[in-house]
């Protein structure tokens, strides 16, 4: 059974607080690593983690806003605020990547030696393990509760993991070979990777705002339920349309019923369809439009 909406909301907010707390601790570790070594690679890693904190705070605000009920000016609620948070997170990542690349290019032009790499590497490894655990937890929770904010924040942390791994490898090579030029080169590669991550997050958020249809497996689940219901009850379904509205699934479908059915009897079946789709998908808000059997619709039959 899915959690009660209020309980689920509190749970999601707790996850965001975990993300914020973990990111603050990771920033301290990475900033110290950058300070003691003077490495622009470690500095670029710390800058990305700073963006993590800002993004997580925006995500927490978006979660709180998305939970507000519908009102006079927002008849369908505020659930799409989560897409806004994902856009902000993607934008912050893009800004961080530009800052990282700029700093690295300056260091490439004016190279400086790095020191005490052993201590810096140790602190970065600890920070990586923290981000790995928290990021994986956020992605799992976000997918389970259909929260784009949690998924985006978790993916950001997991990207930070690979960023730090790249920095650690680069700094280890500097330590072993003495090639100081590897430091800014690693930072530039890190910045490019972060740039791509920011682009992907922005693209996904925009797709959500454009009311993209539900995933194929969920549409197939809805169609299977409708096919079975039609076969058992002598009705037909057409014009299935689906989309996500934040964490909520929205479904619109036409149900064609025998012409002799009363309005009350047709409405009873519409209620059954709404309840059945919600059960099949875990949760869903469905609008059923009723027409007489045999009416041709302009949008055609349902497709998976």
Automatic annotation (TrEMBL):
It is a multi-pass membrane protein. Residues 214-292 form the Cation efflux protein cytoplasmic domain. SUPFAM superfamilies: Cation efflux protein cytoplasmic domain-like, Cation efflux protein transmembrane domain-like. Residues 16-210 form the Cation efflux protein transmembrane domain. One of its GO terms (molecular function) is zinc efflux antiporter activity. Keywords: Membrane, Transmembrane, Transmembrane helix, Transport. Signal peptide: none annotated. GO terms for cellular component: plasma membrane. It is found in: Membrane. It holds the Pfam family ZT_dimer. InterPro entries: Cation_efflux, Cation_efflux_CTD, Cation_efflux_CTD_sf, Cation_efflux_TM, Cation_efflux_TMD_sf, CDF_Transporter. The chain crosses the membrane at residues 15-35, 41-63, 84-105, 117-139, 160-179. The keyword Transport applies. Its main location: membrane. GO terms for biological process: intracellular zinc ion homeostasis. PANTHER family: MITOCHONDRIAL METAL TRANSPORTER 1-RELATED (PTHR43840:SF15). Belongs to the cation diffusion facilitator (CDF) transporter (TC 2.A.4) family. This is Transporter. It comes from Corynebacterium riegelii.
């Amino acid at each position: 059974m899915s959690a009660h909406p209020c309980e689920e909301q509190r749970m999601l907010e707790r996850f965001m607080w975990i993300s914020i707390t973990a990111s603050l601790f990771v920033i301290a570790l990475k900033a110290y690593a950058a300070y003691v070594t003077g490495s622009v690679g470690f500095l670029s890693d710390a800058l990305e983690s700073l963006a993590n904190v800002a993004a997580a705070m925006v995500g927490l605000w978006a979660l709180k806003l998305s939970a507000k009920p519908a009102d006079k000016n927002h008849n369908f609620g505020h659930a799409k605020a989560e897409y806004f948070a994902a856009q902000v997170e993607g934008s912050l990542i893009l800004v961080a990547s530009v800052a990282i690349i700029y700093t690295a290019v300056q260091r490439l032009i004016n190279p400086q030696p790095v020191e005490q790499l052993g201590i810096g590497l140790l602190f970065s490894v600890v920070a990586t393990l923290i981000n790995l655990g928290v990021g994986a937890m956020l992605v799992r929770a976000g997918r389970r509760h259909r929260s784009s904010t949690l998924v985006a924040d978790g993916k950001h942390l997991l990207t930070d993991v690979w960023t730090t791994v790249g920095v650690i490898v680069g700094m280890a090579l500097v330590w072993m070979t003495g090639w100081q030029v590897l430091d800014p080169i690693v930072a530039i590669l890190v910045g490019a990777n972060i740039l791509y991550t920011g682009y992907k997050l922005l693209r996904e958020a925009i797709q959500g705002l454009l009311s993209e249809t539900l995933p194929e497996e969920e549409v197939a689940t809805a169609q299977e339920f409708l096919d079975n219901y039609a076969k058992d009850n002598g009705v037909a379904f057409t014009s299935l349309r689906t989309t996500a509205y934040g964490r909520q699934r929205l479904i619109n479908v036409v149900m064609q019923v025998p012409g002799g059915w009363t309005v009350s009897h047709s409405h009873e079946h519409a209620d059954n369809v709404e309840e059945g789709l919600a059960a099949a998908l875990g949760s869903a808000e469905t609008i059923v439009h009723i027409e007489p059997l045999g009416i041709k619709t302009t949008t055609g039959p349902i497709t998976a």
